[in-house]
């Protein structure tokens, strides 16, 4: 409960925007998905007509998005998320980790947390944009395969959406999205919405391709150490707790240097850097959903474990390109 407003992460939130203003469209996409995202029109801007409906539901964010004219999108490392782009119309030219994918209504593109993304997005392309929290998908695959897995997950760069299971998964996403848009379906019930969200995450875990062949056992690869898994689980369970490097090393059962090296190898950053970004994403998500007349930025920051507001504000601005108060004001 914040300022009389109850924040319910299992209740879907809907955000929509239609605009011909490039800056407004860019700010919306940064707020909904990734702060460092760049959107640049290519050629004639006269046809630019951005349209987006975005549903936020806990660990997933689903948007149906089009721009009306050709654009170029650049995104640095996603870091805390996996992402799927599934065109409904047109073709998307995608580059990620040295691989080019032509995504269209028959094939979706998949993005891992590490590696820059560049998209050539024509005006004819309307697509589903699905963001899945990194921890949610990794925990789901870890449980489904009943074994240690390398992280970031060694996912393939695309999957077929004409045949099952890809077709089934996209249909599930579209059904959830349509239910939230209609505003009078079962998705309005928090318990049902949370189960639907979990089905989207688990369905993706069973759908997405990987570079080792058809069998799930192909996900084995180099093992993720249990020390890293224990540390990640602890941080996700209590993101606001004032962990020190020594605390996390104790949880992992190894020395600080060993844990730091394991995180750099298997997560791509140090434990405390991951924790800070986890907290920032939590604050960002809450501010994006909250009523600015009822919520105070400082209270939200403190609740997510930030005790120095100056450093918090600087880190937030570096990650999302705007101040926390700007994110909250955009809800008015």
Automatic annotation (TrEMBL):
Residues 229-330 form the HTH araC/xylS-type domain. It holds the Pfam family HTH_18. The keyword Transmembrane helix does not apply. Keywords: DNA-binding, Transcription, Transcription regulation. SMART domains: HTH_ARAC (SM00342). It comes from the Bacteria. InterPro entries: AraC-bd_2 (IPR035418), AraC_XylS_family_regulators (IPR050204), Homeodomain-like_sf (IPR009057), HTH_AraC (IPR018060), HTH_AraC-typ_CS (IPR018062). This is AraC family transcriptional regulator. The lineage of its organism: Bacteria, Bacillati, Actinomycetota, Actinomycetes, Micromonosporales.
């Amino acid at each position: 409960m914040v300022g009389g407003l109850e924040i319910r992460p299992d209740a879907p939130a809907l955000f929509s925007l239609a605009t011909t203003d490039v800056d407004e469209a860019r700010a919306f996409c940064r707020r909904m998905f990734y702060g460092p995202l760049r959107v640049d029109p290519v050629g004639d801007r006269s046809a630019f007509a951005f349209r987006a409906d975005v549903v936020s539901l806990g660990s997933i964010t689903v948007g149906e998005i089009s721009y009306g004219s050709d654009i170029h999108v650049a995104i640095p490392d996603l870091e805390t998320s996996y992402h799927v782009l599934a065109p409904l119309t047109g073709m998307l030219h995608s580059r990620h980790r040295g691989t080019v994918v032509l995504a269209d209504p028959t094939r979706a593109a998949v993005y891992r947390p590490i590696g820059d993304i560049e998209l050539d997005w024509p005006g004819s392309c309307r697509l589903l944009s699905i963001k899945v929290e990194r921890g949610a998908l990794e925990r789901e695959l870890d449980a489904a395969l009943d074994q240690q897995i390398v992280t970031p997950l060694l996912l393939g760069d695309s999957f077929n959406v004409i045949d099952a299971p890809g077709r089934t998964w996209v249909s599930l996403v579209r059904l959830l999205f349509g239910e939230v848009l209609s505003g009078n379906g079962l998705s309005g019930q928090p318990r049902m919405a949370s189960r639907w969200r979990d089905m989207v995450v688990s369905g993706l875990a069973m759908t997405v391709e990987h570079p080792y062949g058809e069998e799930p056992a192909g996900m084995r690869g180099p093992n993720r150490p249990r020390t890293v898994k224990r540390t990640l689980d602890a941080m996700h369970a209590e993101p606001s707790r004032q962990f020190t490097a020594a605390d996390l090393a104790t949880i992992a059962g190894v020395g600080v240097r060993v844990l730091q090296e394991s995180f750099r190898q298997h997560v791509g950053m140090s434990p405390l850097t991951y924790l800070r970004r986890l907290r920032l994403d939590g604050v960002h998500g809450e501010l994006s959903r909250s009523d600015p007349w009822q919520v105070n930025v400082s209270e939200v920051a403190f609740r997510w474990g930030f005790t120095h507001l100056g450093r918090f504000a600087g880190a937030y601005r570096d990650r999302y390109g705007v101040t926390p108060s700007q994110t909250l004001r955009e809800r008015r």
